[in-house]
Design brief:
alpha+beta, three-stranded antiparallel beta sheet, 3 strands
Amino acid sequence: ALYRVGCLGRIVSFSETDDGRFLITLLGVSRFLVVEELEMRRGFRRVQADFTRFAEDPSPGAASGGIRRETILTELRGYFVRSGFEANWDAIRRMPDDMLVVTLCMVCPFAPAEKQALLEAASAEDRETALLALLQMGGMDSDEGSSGRAAS
């Protein structure tokens, strides 16, 4: 399936692995709406894109009055512990607010539909709220929230 919203990216680095795969790092430039899917070319899917709705994407930083940084970091710790990840907490603490949210949206191993929800968030604040919700859900203990009663 093809989502209605995509993201145009610029290749910032790539390398070939020993087994012939390529590791490609993209920098998101602007989101777009898919107008229609075009005929495949050389094995790649192509679309006609409309960037109008996301005209502000190329100029980030004009957004919010700050994020709930300590809340995000607390939830991130729980998420990483539950998922068995380790992190460079010094680098995370030094990251500017807007970069922190965007980076976590990219690097956390959320399901494709969850990543899509983050991509489609209408504002930086909405993206932060969605990120927090995903971290909280992923960081919960499987018994948390249950009433302790057996299902009947």
